[in-house]
Amino acid sequence: MKKLLLLSLILAFAASSNAQTSDKKMGFGIGLGAYGASNDQGVGLMPELYLSRYLSPKFDLMLKGNLGVLNSKVEKTDLANALLNLRYKLADENKKFIPYLYAGPGFLADNQKSGLNFDLGLGGKYYFKESTAIYFDAGYLNGIEATRATKTVRDNILKATVGLEFGIGKVKDSDMDGVSDKKDKCPDTPAGVTVDEAGCPVDTDGDGVADYIDDCPDVAGVSSLKGCPDKDKDGVADKDDKCPDVAGLVALKGCPDTDADGVADKDDKCPDNPKGWKVDANGCPLDQDKDGVPDAIDECPTVAGTKDTKGCPVKEPEKKKEITADQVEIQNIKVTPVHFVSDKSYLTDYSKGVLEKLLQTLKSNPEYNVNVYGHADSQGPDDHNFKLSQARIASVVEYLISKGISDNRIIQQKAFGESKPIASNDTEEGRLQNRRVEFEIFKMK
């Protein structure tokens, strides 16, 4: 009766248990073993049940019950033993295999007697599922003194057991990542994210950016670029950088822009533009009127002109009232012609000095007027040279007016282009002589 009572208590306690780890503080086991008693008392089977309570990473408290049945020399139940054991774990609880030692006091019913005893042993358990382990152990049960045929005896027992240990109960896992809150170092991981043993999101490349938010999970990068590398450190991830080997601008996908015109150097056909000039898609200065003068310095950006007139059209000489030869009296005054740089219409300082004599003559003789004739060498097309000779006349007339000569005194302004050379165009010296503006002084009769 005592044996059945002890077994019933153990079964009732075990049925109400919870899982036994640092998360699940309790667990229970069920096993079957074999035992042998001293004093030639036969061998038999020993079913076992236990309830264990987690105390610390190294210790568990166990309430264990053993029965000795089917003994080779005993027809009925041979013994019952209730024990309170302390189990010492020899490995970390995160390991799959955990060896252990155990020992503790107990209450034994045997040989029609009952009394206090103890046990000790060693074993190990292997977790093949998160909360289920197979265990095996071998132990010694200390017997109690009894009288058998007028002789005092103590039947000590050796046993070996194999069984299963179960964990029962629900572990709190707030982020549902499979790692309990107690062990989870990252308890707020978003749902569905793969985590490591510590419950933190997996970071394959070890760059501190979790794979689930890492745009480059297989190569270390920087957090500011969502885990992607930036070899040239320009703030543009290499995967998006059109110029990954040289620092550039974010707005140009990582490419440099030396002249700061908004066109990347690699696409810029005019990479040395002055700062501030407006450019086209190729990075070249805008030239709306296609006259070769960039809008930024073109004083007439919507009307084609020449470089010498700063992008403005060459002004046609103002037509004066036609004066016939019999109305004028040509003065026999020699005026040195003004010469020009090749393909240019501006006045050099030397040319301005030459004009001083003409200015003095006109200012000293208010009745004198002047005709102006423009010429060019034969370099370039005829039409270009004609326009160039017009531009040279315009430069001279503008200078004379700026020095106080009324435009009413500049009567005839005629361009001849290359049609009236005074020297050979085959030599540089000859061409210089032909690039000229000539003057004719006269007064009205």
Structural account:
The protein is α+β, with helices and mostly antiparallel strands and 445 residues long. Among the domains are: 2-167, Porin; 325-444, 60s Ribosomal Protein L30, Chain: A (2-Layer Sandwich). The protein is built from 4 helices and 15 strands. The strands form 3 sheets. An 8-stranded antiparallel beta barrel has the order 1-2-3-4-5-6-7-10. Strands 11, 12, 13, 14 and 15 form a 5-stranded mixed β-sheet that branches. The protein has a two-stranded antiparallel sheet with strand order 8-9. A hairpin with a 2-residue loop joins β5 and β6 (113-129). The longest helix has 21 residues, at 382-402. It starts with a helix and ends with a strand. Residues 1-19 have low confidence and may be disordered.
How are the elements arranged and paired?
Blueprint (H helix, E strand, L loop, with lengths): L1 H14 L10 E12 L5 E12 L4 E10 L10 E11 L7 E14 L2 E17 L2 E10 L3 E4 L2 E4 L2 E11 L160 E3 L7 E2 L9 H16 L3 E7 L7 H21 L7 E6 L12 H7 L1 E9 L1
Parallel strand pairs: 13-14
Antiparallel strand pairs: 1-2, 1-10, 2-3, 3-4, 4-5, 5-6, 6-7, 7-10, 8-9, 11-15, 12-15, 13-15
Summarize this structure briefly.
With 445 residues, the chain is α+β, with helices and mostly antiparallel strands. The chain contains 4 helices and 15 strands.
Task: Name some characteristics of this structure.
445 residues; alpha+beta; Porin; 60s Ribosomal Protein L30, Chain: A; 8-stranded antiparallel beta barrel; 5-stranded mixed sheet; disordered N terminus
Uncertain spans: 1-19
Radius of gyration: 56 Å
Helix content: 10-25%
Taking the sheet with the most strands, its summary is:
8 strands, antiparallel, barrel
Strands side by side in the biggest sheet: 1-2-3-4-5-6-7-10
- Residue-averaged pLDDT, rounded? 88
What would you say the CATH architecture of the domain at 2-167 is? Beta Barrel
CATH top level of the domain at 2-167 is Mainly Beta
Number of strands: 15
Strand content: 25-35%
Report, as a whole number of angstroms, the end-to-end distance.
164 Å
Number of helices: 4
The CATH topology assignment of the domain at 2-167 is Porin
| Helix-strand sequence | HEEEEEEEEEEEEHEHEHE
Q: Given the helix and strand composition, which structural class is it?
A: alpha+beta
Q: Specify the overall morphology.
A: rod-shaped
